[in-house]
Automatic annotation (TrEMBL):
Pathway: Cell wall biogenesis; peptidoglycan biosynthesis. This is UDP-N-acetylmuramoylalanine--D-glutamate ligase. Gene3D superfamilies: Mur ligase, C-terminal domain, Mur-like, catalytic domain, NAD(P)-binding Rossmann-like Domain. GO terms for biological process: cell division; cell wall organization; peptidoglycan biosynthetic process; regulation of cell shape. Cell wall formation. Catalyzes the addition of glutamate to the nucleotide precursor UDP-N-acetylmuramoyl-L-alanine (UMA). InterPro entries: Mur-like_cat_sf, Mur_ligase_C, Mur_ligase_C_dom_sf, Mur_ligase_cen, MurD. Its main location: cytoplasm.
Length: 457
């Protein structure tokens, strides 16, 4: 070994100063690396303070190429596209680029339960975490929800991690392995990131099974046509555990003719009445099946799984009950930022045409025909809420009895209150991103809840 190899410290450059980036920087420091963090925008104050406290050099408001292009390896925030100018230069220099999850996975032998899908992954991730935590497992929550996996690996020890993974996070994962991989569904989303080619998006999602062996498990929705088509084209090493609404050949989870949820794995099997599940609606049945299968494969006692599936309280901004005012139920589904999410919300509503649906926001090229049958069957009025409602008003004109065109949240809630009568449900499930009127879907959801609660006064 030469003197040079003894003195050279690996230079790790982290791009992005959010939760994942700061966690990766701290893990790099813990492992003795020469760490530098750079953010093209502004780093939130709490993360900047954390970097200062850790004595990790960083910059914000731009990228200094001479401090970045000398990296041995780059950890990239999921939100930075590969087409960003700095990423193009990093690629030209041949510097390896990985994700925070990939980086953290090198330094832990914990079991990894990884969950992806176009819709439902946050609920399934939190439900799985809830089951394991309530069963007394030393479990960490990471990825799109929870805290940075890298930070937890650096400063804590968990036996199992439950990780929500977006397609963006999966892009730069190479050697990482999920012991249990969950694929809930695949519908068009983020296609602007994938050259508007659906197959590119599918390929990114399917990176979740990368490196799996026959000792690992792949849990997936058996009736998703996109997943089904992809499985016909590839070879899966892992043991397969499909779930379905009804009993089908090979299904490891389903609902039987007596309306009982059945879950069968080599380690654990359980049966419970579907009506006892805390989460209602078909999409939540699938989420519960995926979480239950994961827990069974980890050998959690069936009594613990059953109890946790019965008492889970759900996710903020996802079919969240807000209030009952004069017999009208108000539901916050602000997390429904695409048409397919709204479809799941409407599917969970009772029939009878008693839904007042709030739609609108920043349109991502939406095709509303997917929800048209459910709207005709269940919706008595649509309240459009956004800067540009023309597309919604035009598409649904003549298909619902009433359409109201509003341009603020307060006007939308007032319109709903005026239209609603006892027995109705007001559902905020916008189909759209929030950035026309709000900072985020969380901001939209919280302001909706505040406006609804103000109706009580």
């Amino acid at each position: 070994m030469t003197d040079n190899s003894i003195t050279h410290r690996k230079r790790l450059v982290v791009l992005g100063g959010g939760e994942s980036g700061v966690g990766a920087a701290i893990l790099g420091k813990e492992k003795g690396m020469d760490v530098f963090l750079s953010d093209y925008g502004n780093i939130p104050q709490r993360y900047a303070a954390q970097l200062e406290e850790e004595n990790i050099p960083f910059e914000q408001g731009g990228h200094s190429e001479h401090l970045i292009l000398n990296a041995d390896e780059v950890v990239k925030s999921p939100g930075i596209p590969p087409t960003a100018p700095i990423m193009v230069k990093i690629a030209e220099k041949g510097i390896p680029v990985i994700s925070e999850i990939e980086f953290a996975g090198r330094y832990t032998d914990a079991k990894m339960v990884c969950i992806t899908g176009s819709n439902g992954k946050t609920t399934t991730t939190l439900l799985t975490y809830h089951i394991l935590r309530e069963a007394g497992i030393n479990v960490g929550l990471a990825g799109n929800v929870g805290r940075s996996l890298a930070l937890q690996v650096a400063r804590e020890h968990h036996d199992v991690y439950v990780i929500e993974l977006s397609s963006f996070q999966l892009e730069n994962m190479y050697d990482f392995k999920a012991n249990i991989a969950v694929m809930l569904n695949i519908t068009p989303d983020h296609l602007d990131r994938y050259d508007y080619k659906m197959q590119n998006y599918i390929n990114a999602k399917f990176r979740i099974i990368r490196n799996q062996t026959p000792e690992d498990a792949f849990i997936f929705w058996q009736d998703d046509p996109v997943i089904e088509a992809q499985l016909r084209q590839i070879t899966i090493e892992a043991a397969k555990y499909p779930f379905s609404e009804h009993m089908e050949e090979e299904a490891a989870a389903y609902v039987d003719t007596l309306d009982n949820l059945i879950i069968n794995t080599p380690r654990t099997s359980l049966e419970m009445p579907r009506k006892d599940l805390s989460l209602h609606g078909l999409h939540n049945l699938y989420n519960s099946m995926a979480a239950g299968l994961s827990a069974c494969l980890l050998n959690i006692r069936k009594e613990d799984i059953r109890r946790a599936l019965e008492d889970f309280e759900g996710v903020e901004h996802r079919l969240e009950f807000v209030a009952d005012i004069d017999g009208v139920r108000y539901i916050n589904d602000s997390k429904a930022t695409n048409v397919n999410s709204c479809w799941y919300a409407l599917e969970s509503m009772p029939p009878g045409g008693n839904v007042i649906l709030i739609l609108g926001g920043k349109d991502k090229g939406n095709d509303y025909s997917e929800i048209e049958p459910l709207v005709r069957d269940k919706v008595k009025a649509i309240v459009a809420m956004g800067l540009h409602n023309e597309k919604i008003v035009e598409f649904f004109g003549g298909k619902v009895p009433v359409i109201r065109d509003t341009h603020s949240l307060q006007d939308a809630v007032d319109a709903c209150a005026a239209l609603a009568t006892a027995g109705d449900t007001v559902l905020l499930s916008p189909c759209c991103a929030s950035f026309d009127l709000f900072q985020s879907y969380e901001d939209r959801g919280r302001r909706f809840k505040n406006a609804v609660k103000a109706l009580k006064k």
